[in-house]
Amino acid sequence: MKISCFPKYRIGRLLGMIQILLGGLVIIVSISSLFRFYSAGFFMHNEDICKQFYGVKDVYEGFDVMSLSARVDEVLDKMLKLQENLESKVQQMEKIKDLVNNTVSMLDYKKFIEEDVIHPLYGAHIALRQLRLPRVENGTTNEDPLINTFVTEEIRKYITPKETRVGNKNIYGSQKIFNTIGHGCVSMKKELEEYMDYDIGSFCKDDWNVAQNLMINGCDPLPRRRCLTRASKLYQKPYPINESLWRIPDGRNVRWSNYRCRNFECLSIKNPKRGYSKCTGCFEMEKEKLKWVTNTSLLTDFLIKDALAVKPGEIRIGLDFGIGTGTFAARMQEHNVTIVSTALNLGAPFNEMIALRGLIPLYITLNQRLPFFDNTMDLIHTTGFMDGWIDLQLMDFILFDWDRILRPGGLLWIDRFFCNRKDLDDYMYMFLQFRYKKHKWAISPKSKDEVFLSALLEKPPRSL
Predict the structure, then answer these.
(1) What residues does each domain of the chain span?
(2) Which ranges of the sequence are coiled-coil (predicted)?
């Protein structure tokens, strides 16, 4: 009887098709895998391959994984350095053939143990104990961001959110208070930890210049500190208000340790080594008395009486945004106008000088949002600080912040702003973009390549 081969043919054909299909799937999976490795940077030796390939996040549900990893690496580095140091010492000892005759004093031995062994080991121990792992509550992680970034305990205590003692919402409508530090503090970790390294309740170090350097470089606002501010050892009570406005203060009221000068006489314009250059004659009262009250040959020199005449009786409070010793505020006080003066101690005690004259200094940098509410200031005056050196985009942020706090109908007084002639159109646009009403506008030459620009502008109502 003849046997049919049809069934065998059908089974073989079916198996062949399955093999072809599986082979195609293998090729597709292989290509997709290769593409995934390539997109993750595997073939380019990208250091972030694991993070990209496995989807690891820098911050996982509010917990800073990268800071934790950095802290672990820091501890490992300390332990490795300690091990290498000890191994080096052992090798040095092995090179000495006659150990019996080689005498090492107990003082040297103690110093070696303390500085090269105990201190590094203790530092690694503290850093390891301060590692904070995420707490899991209701199936989710709950931890403070950046808690593992800093070593100094005072910083860690400061940035940790503080819960209310009774469990209810506080006056802000929150159950926790979050203390703020500037984002730049992360990139200036070493300087911030130096600033926050103190004994609680003791006297602070004379380190205001460290704080100012942090502020200027974006670590602003700074954390609060729990140490006592130092004052001058020879501090005297300020002069009475009827004398202090136009009199050089007592130099004993200033801590001079971080300045080139050691008294107010040294800050004379005649001294080329006084340590500052931005504010000419600021500490010479005879020259200061002439500002904004006497006519000059420059069209860009406006007088206070002319500016106040634009809005008679309406200017009551304002901001002087610049660098100086408070003379503009002193002159405006004579017209019953209260002015807050911004100041940084750039080479001289500007803040102390303003305060000792009986005026209000505001210790603030260019890169900080002004601590005033919207539409509250009658006047903003600026001179001597924000000039043609400033980046246009930074200036844009500053001007929009001024516009925010200036009330409708308030005055913006641009006083002797100077820049290169070729940049004048750019800066003019910056001031005119807000469509303020022009009351005064003047341009005069400063030098061959530079010009002065002064303007008195009124903010429109914008009642929406």
Answers:
(1) 6-54, 59-129, 163-230, 241-458
(2) 65-103
